[in-house]
Amino acid sequence: MNVQLFIPCFVDQLFPETAFNMVKVLEKLGCNVMYNSDQTCCGQPAFNAGYHDECKSVATKFVKDFHTFDYIVAPSGSCSGFVRNYYSKLFDNSAAHNEVKLLKKNLYEFTEFLVDVLHVTDLGATLNGVGTYHDACGALRECGIKQGPRKLLENVKGLELREMNDCEVCCGFGGTFSVKFEPISMGMGEQKVNNAVASGADYLISTDLSCLMHLDGYIRKHGTNIKIMHIADVLASGW
């Protein structure tokens, strides 16, 4: 099976090890993994800031870069959800309509691809400790991802999965929201971290590094004893 990687901007620039771990997992499952180095942003930051024309220019390049019949897999529910749910609006009644339709059909968030396409829930991973899972808004609300990541984590040897209070509540990042409404954003981040710590977790795990980056900022500033981990990093552990 051929798989094209879609690596979001912040993963490429700040968390490349997660992308490599995603490749490690996919190759273990027999996938032929490919990466188009011409790819750039999907356009979500510009769209969310109200710059829809600028977003469409970036999105047009994205559609061209990912014009493929292969599966496209990304370590982000936020970016995957944006492309799948908003590109049809950006390119409504345009010549790119069919290309966008194909793109939406082939694009999957990482855990969604493992569980729903490859039908795999046990990667043979090992991570000793207690973990708690944060439902990122992009994954949960834009992609409908809820049980898949939990099934994967439940099969990680040595990892005890505990639910924290308000696991579905936003962490407060929201892209430019965290800049424009910093006090509210930080208050939401504090609440999320406190709930994770109260669960007794050693690891705060999610599908989205945008959320985890925001939460890790609070954790580092306050010296909180918990570690963030993207689920790809968890699933690549111990083998």
List keywords for this structure.
single chain; 239 residues; 2 domains; four-stranded parallel β-sheet; 13 helices; Cys_rich_dom; L-lactate dehydrogenase complex protein LldE; oxidoreductase activity
- Which band does the percent of strand residues land in? 15-25%
Q: How many extended strands?
A: 8
Query: Please, how many domains?
Result: 2
Mean pLDDT: 95
Q: What is the ordering of alpha helices and beta strands?
A: EHHEHHEHHEHEHHEHHEHEH
Structural class: alpha/beta
List segments where confidence is low: pLDDT < 50 over at least 5 consecutive residues. Answer: none
Give the strand order of the largest sheet, numbering strands 1, 2, ... along the chain.
2-1-3-4
Question: How much helicity do the residues have?
Answer: 40-55%
Shape: globular
| Number of separate helices | 13
Distance between the termini: 22 Å
Q: Rg, please?
A: 17 Å
Most strands sheet: 4 strands, parallel
Domain Cysteine-rich: 3-82, 132-216
Organism: Chitinophaga dinghuensis
GO molecular function, one term: oxidoreductase activity
InterPro entries: Cys_rich_dom
